[in-house]
Specification:
Elements (H helix, E strand, L loop, with lengths): L1 H12 L2 H22 L7 H12 L12 H37 L11 E4 L3 H13 L5 E5 L11 E5 L5 H6 L7 E4 L8 H22 L5 E5 L5 H5 L5 E4 H14 L3 H9 L6 E6 L7 H10 L3 E5 L18 E6 L1 H10 L4
Parallel strand pairs: 1-2, 1-4, 2-3, 4-5, 5-6
Antiparallel strand pairs: 7-9, 8-9
Helix pairs in contact: 1-4, 2-3, 2-4, 9-10
Protein name: Ion transporter
Pfam families: Ion_trans_2, TrkA_N
Subcellular location: Cell membrane
Length: 345
């Protein structure tokens, strides 16, 4: 009996894989042993396996029970050793799950999904952006890269990675090469625009450099504090800029001159309004701007621009390029109906 308890102590200290292998071997051998000891009761090794599993898991259906003394003695052995062994395995599995959760919360695991959004730098702005992206669809995944000791919030949509965003290993861990877009935010309460934009420039240069090494294109969006820094970012092949200071100033000015205009802009920017700005590609569907304007209107979508050109009403009779990028304002359901109808998804 003491030897069995000593074996249990050794098993507890054993690593997960060896103990799982030992358990599988033990259950398999026991299935053949009980079949060999009492072939009349356990007519096949599978019946023996059924008896062993119902015994060591303490289920105990009682449909098959040993009748001989040697069979009952082996059953006692299963009670003492087998149940303990299964308990250790279950404990190891729970321990492994707990370790997995800890590593995930601390940002030590690799993200293996695709089509996700990578956010670099946690702040209230980043949190709000994440919530807005999630409004697009409940299944969207956000990967956050930051130096925080653990994930800032618990969310099924958020996967946290702790690390330096200028480090290639961190970018690989976030699987940025498969991301839909990479969004780079300045640090919260950063008052020095040169320092903030300089840090963002280093980060986006690392991301774009990593893309060049892989021979792929990674769509990058960067928050910039000063517009005069844009030329520096253009050399880094940044796809889009969001100028924080100028955007706020422009919105304040519009509100002062045209009272209430800021509410319209903020309402449009928020997905809670029920409508949003969506992007469509022509792909030869419409010959003129008017063709696109009228058909999209019939589908309850407002055609507002071709890329950055908002003068749509002045050029309705002009040819619409096959590679035109059309922006419309409509609900999510309307956008999905349009993409399904014209097979644009």
């Amino acid at each position: 009996m003491l030897m069995i308890f000593e074996l249990m102590q050794i098993a507890v200290k054993t690593k997960k894989l060896p103990i799982i292998v030992i358990t599988i071997v033990f259950i398999t051998l026991s299935s053949f042993v009980v079949h060999w000891l009492e072939p009349d009761m356990f007519v096949t090794p599978f019946i023996g396996f059924w008896y062993v599993m119902t015994t060591v898991t303490t289920t105990g259906y009682g449909d098959f029970v040993p009748e001989t003394t040697i069979g009952k003695l082996y059953g006692l052995f299963l009670y003492i050793f087998g149940i303990g062994l299964i308990g250790i395995v279950i404990g190891k599995i729970v321990e492994g799950y707990g370790m997995f959760q800890t590593l995930k919360e601390e940002g030590k695991l690799r993200f293996r999904g695709k089509g996700h959004y990578v956010i670099i730098g946690w702040s209230n702005k980043a949190k709000h952006t994440m919530n807005e992206i999630i409004e697009i669809g409940e299944d969207v995944k956000i990967v956050l890269i930051d130096s925080l000791p653990s994930t800032p919030i618990e969310s099924v949509n958020l996967f946290y990675i702790q690390g330096d965003p200028t480090d290639k290993q961190t970018l690989e861990q976030a699987n940025v090469q498969e991301a839909h877009a990479v969004l780079i935010f300045t640090e919260e309460n950063e008052i020095d625009p040169v320092s903030a934009d300089g840090k963002s420039l280093i980060i986006v240069s690392s991301v774009e450099g990593y893309a060049v090494d892989l021979g792929i294109d990674i769509y990058t969006i960067v928050e910039i504090l000063k517009e005069k820094h844009i030329p520096n970012f253009k050399h880094a092949n940044v796809d889009e800029f969001v100028i924080a200071d100028e955007a706020l100033s422009d919105l304040m000015a519009k509100s002062a001159v045209h009272k209430g205009s800021s509410k319209i802009v903020m309402k449009l920017l928020s997905r809670k309004s029920g409508v949003d700005i969506w992007k469509l590609f022509n792909r030869g569907l419409w010959k003129t701007y008017n063709d696109a304007f009228e058909e999209l209107k019939s589908l309850e979508a407002n055609f507002i621009s071709d890329q950055y050109d908002f003068q749509i009403l002045k050029k309705l009779n002009e040819p619409l390029p096959d590679d035109a990028e059309l922006y419309v304002i409509c609900s999510k359901d309307t956008y999905q109906n349009i993409t399904r109808k014209f097979k644009l998804d």
